Amino acid sequence: MGSLLRSEEMTYVRLYFDQVAAHDTLAELARSEIIQLEDLNQEVSSFQKEAAAEIRRCEEMLRRIRYLDERSKLYKEDEHYRYSNKLEDRRIMSPKKLEDLDEFLCTMEHSVKEITAHEESIEESYKELNEMRLVLEACEDVFKDTNRSERGFVKSLVRQMGALTPAAANAFRDLSAESGTHSGKGLVNFVAGMIDTERRAAFERTTFRVTKGNSYVKSEDVSEGRTVFIVFLTGSKVRSKVERTCTAFQAARYPIPEDSEEREKSHETCLERLRELELVITATKASRAEIIRSYRDYLDIWKDFVADEKTILQASNMLNYDTSRSLFIAEGWVASTDMEEFTACIKRGQLSSNAQAPSLVEVRGEGKSQGEPPTYFRINRFTSVFQAIIESYGIAQYEEMNPAPFAVITFPFLFAVMFGDVGHGVIMACFALILIIFERAFQSGPKRSEFFAYCFNGRYIIFLMGLFSIFTGFIYNEVFAIPMNIFVSRWKFTDESDVACGIDNCDDPGAANPPLNPYPFGFDPIWKISKNSLAMFNSYKMKLSIVLGVTHMIVGIFNSFWNGVHFRESIDVFFVFIPQILFMCSIFGYLVLLILVKWMTDWNSVECQNDPNCQPPDLKAILIGMFMSPGQVPPENTLFRGQAVVQVVLLLLALVCIPWMLLPRPLLLRRRHYHKIRYESLVPSSTTEEHQPGDTDDTIFVKKGEGAGDGEKPEKEFNFQDVFVGQLIHTIEFVLGAVSNTASYLRLWALSLAHSELSDVFLEKLIFFPLSSGNIVIILVGFLVWIAATLGVLMGMESLSAFLHALRLHWVEFQNKFYNVHGTGRKFMPLTLKRSEEE
């Protein structure tokens, strides 16, 4: 029976079912999500498998569905496009075959593409005609005061040439004089068109330069981003240069008649064609809306249907097909507790397909008899986030101890040690509680940002982190860095001394005697305003980090013991666990013992006051002296009798543990390997098949004995050199890691101190300082900035920092003691019809 602590017990099964029942059987298994199929065609390329063509067709159908969905969303706000929300207006389409749906989707895609291309062509023509209308109107505005003769045209042009160079102006005046004596046309002409507004200035400069000043450009903004221009020029060569300039600047040129009457006719013709195109565009949009309306309501149904069929086809590619008996053969892993549901799925698949041949279920073996089973933990909404954190480090081996149950408590607690504050914990817990209460609304609602998705998926761990932060906040006695005087402070200040004394032990105020009855829970609020508060909190939090860290690592080492007992690996128990736990306890366990003894000793007792050597020792000096001068403990560093002897024994025990971890295990593994080769049977054990008597059901069970060797995988070749080098690395890593990992837990102290001090700074500078000014505006601004700093820096950046540090402590310092020591496992990936959000 499996649990979250260890993987579910897995059973390896083989299925035989008729070709007719293949689709329905795989569909039932995918809906139940209880089997992980093994690929029996690994040697065959994916392009050569039987269902490869059908899978490609499904992918093409999904592409068409995505295209149709994109087009419907693109025109969702169109005024001609309205969805029908009434059920009676819908034609329910529930496809049963891929062929029918594929033909329909192909027709729909072709229709949408055709009408879209037609609409784009019409809109482009409408745009060009509209620009031509604007150009005609702009030209008419320019020429409205001129006569219809060329003489009047040139004279009017000369009157508008205020910006021309003297040479160009004289040239146009000469043309004006010539136009009075000649009746010829074409002496002065123009080029008109439309250009992007952002290119207008560059276009005018370039035109002036290429024509050497023999042109005049008049422009006017007529719409957003577009400008009408008219270039007046002389001669065919200049005109050719101007036209090339227009082409270079991607300006649209339009043929504008020089005669006023012809321009009017062109303008009327343009307006008439615009009205006709508007009618065509309206009809085209109505047709497009009708096409989109005919399929829009069924896209999700089609998408799910095709995706399900693709999943079933991919699963069928993992099966073997027995052509002689027209049977499909499938193999896979099923949780032993799901065998009853598994057989029911096989039965339902056979009945729904009306298959005549019965389905056969063959139990090949349980556990590791058929190779390495997948790791399967039953999780729920609460435990899924913790399991995801653990599996980000690595997948547990089959039946290996799972760190997730421990992380449910230790992860939020270590986070709270670094983030302890009642106010901040309440904000975090309330935020997570809102996500938990309205989780169904958030799940069924529209897709939100990636940051919100991370918060929503981790709502339960955020809620626990908030609760534990409230707990540690009560211990630290801080609410937004303000101490709480819930149980009344046990210290008081007097006029006789600058230091405080206990309210029930203040006979001599100058002695600074502590209270006989200390504060009931957490720190006394007076510590927050004392001058030595930082030193006291530093000392306490640093020692607390060591105690919590060593305890956390010892729990991890004990988990390796339970792994060894479960897998019946006596070598790992006696030559890995025992030396590791002795090494850890002889040094750092002893340090924890010294911390506890120092905390529990009453240094203000009468006996201690009369003893000159009775004073709090420096624990760092004790630990250094244990290695540098074994057997010698100065009187000022003595905590208990026989301390020198105990330290020598512990030091010797730690030294003995190093070769104890290094040498015996590789040698014993080599001895076990040679012993197995020497006495291994040369004849494989026979296989027996047992048919359950009295089976009247169509589903037949076959159980294969333990000696079934055809499914077993060959063991990895033993290499003593690799094993010894691996053990050497493991030993060095553990010995050095015992020191570095213990020091790593000091981050609990550092992050907690940083969080507390940062809260103090924000409170003092943004709340207390504005209050002392007495200015209501400064107080209001300071309060708003304090809220922003609290939410942005403390609740945002600090919480993320504490989360990452707690994550590192679990991955590196805790899990490496027992998790994935002999390699990672493989996760149970059942056949399922569910798809991720990305899919």
From TrEMBL:
Task: Give the molecular function GO annotations.
Answer: ATPase binding; proton-transporting ATPase activity, rotational mechanism
- Coiled-coil residue windows: 30-57
Location comes to: Membrane
What keywords sit in the KW lines? Coiled coil, Hydrogen ion transport, Ion transport, Membrane, Transmembrane, Transmembrane helix, Transport
Q: Which domain of life is it from?
A: Eukaryota
- Chain segments carrying region Disordered: 685-712
Spans through the membrane: 413-438, 459-476, 544-562, 574-597, 644-663, 723-746, 766-794
Q: Which InterPro entries match?
A: V-ATPase_116kDa_su (IPR002490), V-type_ATPase_116kDa_su_euka (IPR026028)
Q: What is its main location?
A: membrane
| Basic and acidic residues composition bias: residue spans | 688-712
Q: Which GO terms describe its biological process?
A: vacuolar acidification
Q: Does the keyword Transmembrane helix apply?
A: yes
Question: Can you list the GO cellular component terms from the UniProt entry?
Answer: vacuolar proton-transporting V-type ATPase, V0 domain
What Pfam family is a match, any one?
V_ATPase_I
What membrane topology is annotated for this entry?
Multi-pass membrane protein
Q: Which PANTHER family match?
A: V-TYPE PROTON ATPASE SUBUNIT A, VACUOLAR PROTON ATPASES
What function does the entry list?
Essential component of the vacuolar proton pump (V-ATPase), a multimeric enzyme that catalyzes the translocation of protons across the membranes. Required for assembly and activity of the V-ATPase.
- Name the protein family: Belongs to the V-ATPase 116 kDa subunit family.
This chain belongs to which protein, by name?
V-type proton ATPase subunit a
Q: Which organism is it from?
A: Rhodosorus marinus
